[in-house]
Structures are given as structure tokens and as C-alpha cells.
Specification:
- By secondary structure, this protein is of the alpha/beta class.
- It has one domain: Alpha/Beta hydrolase fold, catalytic domain (Rossmann fold, 3-Layer(aba) Sandwich).
- Helices cover about 20% and strands about 25% of the residues.
- It is built from 5 helices and 14 strands.
- The chain has an 8-stranded mixed β-sheet, sandwiched between helices. The chain has a two-stranded antiparallel sheet with strand order 1-10.
- It is globular and about 50 Å long.
Length: about 240
């Protein structure tokens, strides 16, 4: 695939001055119509389990509400979550057109079509390549929660054993209606939440995905309300200390 440009340093630094910690290796993956940026720490290939983190929507819009030319996230929240996970096998998966911009990228891929079939197919393909036959704990942040749920729905052969979301959007139609925004007309929505063990972390002070909205799409028994947390600041959140 011909690349128009890379916003990426292959030594392990990319976007927002994030330094990949020891053990994490940058691995670009060809999947569907895109090349997807991933960082992977596979410390024990014989371990039949892996934790996979999916990035949020990134910088889809600017401060004036206009679509950007590059959806690469400026913050490092999800990469930091992944890097602080002490499990043996961990991977961080960016969304299409984040960090790597290619010929096939178009504005709708991070706006109205951010959850389109071609996006979900590409993310699902990347996850399959990373996980192989391993059992997966799939973690999605913000819009990445929607992506992760759709990946599970569209790929029943994936061995997803647990689904975790952080500040997650799980129904984009309810989300846009809540804020009076335009529908994501080129995007799929989940028919039902996946039937896997799940926990949804919601920030008490999250104004982007407020608790009252999260309760409309997830069972309250599966929601963990994190005091004082905002949309992109959950303090020293440990996803695996809070048992579901």
C-alpha cells in the first residue's frame, strides 16, 4: 500500500511524545484497505491469552467542530493503559488512518463512517493477526469501545473471553441524539451487546459519555463508576483490580 505520509517514528516514539516502554515493539499491520499501527508486547508466546487495547476516535474534529485532516490522537491515555498492563501478552491497536495515512483514507473514516463495515473489518483483521488462536481480553476506549463491540459481533470466531470498555460509546445513535449532533450516517451500530463477560468503566465527571447515558445501553451491574474521573483522566485506573 502506497503511503502518503507517516506520523510515526519507527523507533517507538509516535504522536504526543509517547515513548514505547521496553518490551513493546511497533508492528504495522496490513488489514483490509488500511495499514494499522500497533505496538505489541509478546513476552510469552506460549501463553494462550492476550490483552488487546483499541484506541478511541482520536482527533476527529478540531476546536471549532470541523473535521481534521489527521485523526491521530494527541493524548496517550490508551497507550499508557496498555503499557501499564503487566500481563505477559499485550497489544495496542490504533484505528485506521491514525499514525499512518494512506491512499485509502478519507475523511468519513474518522467522522460519519468511523464505525463503517470497512473500518470494523480492518480492525477485526488486525486483531485476528495479532491474537491468532489466543483467548482475548478486548479493551476499547471511547469510540474504540464501539469498535470493539462491533468487532466481537462481526467476528464470532474470535476467542473474546472478556470485554472491557473505558468511557465507552456503545450506541452511537443514542450518543449523537443525546448531544443533538448529526447521525453517523455511514456507521454500523451494535444490534445487541456481545454475550461475553464484560465491565464498563464510566467516569463520574465524564461530560463526553456521561453516566446517565451509559446506563441506557449497558446493565448497571456491569458498570463501574469511577469517582472524579473525566473522559480522558481516570487517575491510576487498574482495569484488573476491579473484578466484575
Amino acid at each position: 500500500m502506497k503511503k502518503l505520509f507517516w506520523i510515526l517514528l519507527l523507533s517507538g516514539c509516535a504522536g504526543a511524545n509517547w515513548n514505547a516502554p521496553d518490551g513493546f515493539v511497533y508492528v504495522p499491520i496490513e488489514s483490509g484497505e488500511y495499514e494499522i499501527a500497533t505496538w505489541q508486547k509478546i513476552s510469552n508466546p506460549k501463553n494462550n491469552n492476550i490483552h488487546i487495547y483499541i484506541e478511541g476516535d482520536g482527533r476527529s474534529f478540531d476546536a471549532y467542530g470541523q473535521p481534521t485532516n489527521d485523526p491521530t490522537p494527541r493524548g496517550t491515555f490508551v497507550r499508557d493503559l496498555a503499557s501499564h498492563d503487566d500481563f505477559e501478552n499485550v497489544a495496542y491497536v490504533a484505528r485506521p488512518c491514525q499514525f499512518i495515512m494512506s491512499d485509502n483514507c478519507k475523511e468519513s473514516d474518522w467522522t460519519t463512517g468511523r464505525f463503517s463495515k470497512r473500518i470494523i473489518d480492518a480492525e477485526g483483521g488486525a486483531i485476528k493477526q495479532i491474537a491468532g488462536n489466543k483467548k482475548i481480553t478486548l479493551i476499547g476506549y471511547s469510540g474504540g469501545a464501539m469498535v470493539s463491540g462491533l468487532v466481537i459481533e462481526q467476528n464470532p470466531n474470535l476467542k473474546v473471553e472478556k470485554w472491557i470498555t473505558v468511557a465507552g460509546v456503545l450506541d452511537h445513535k443514542k450518543w449523537t441524539q443525546y448531544f443533538g449532533d448529526k447521525d453517523l450516517t455511514e456507521s454500523m451500530n451494535m444490534k445487541n451487546l456481545p454475550k461475553v463477560g464484560q465491565v464498563h468503566f464510566v467516569g463520574e465527571r465524564d461530560e463526553t459519555v456521561p453516566y446517565e447515558l451509559a446506563k441506557t445501553w449497558a446493565n448497571e451491574s456491569d458498570i463501574k463508576l469511577i469517582q472524579k474521573a473525566t473522559h480522558d483522566d481516570f487517575g491510576n485506573l487498574n482495569l484488573f483490580e476491579n473484578k466484575n
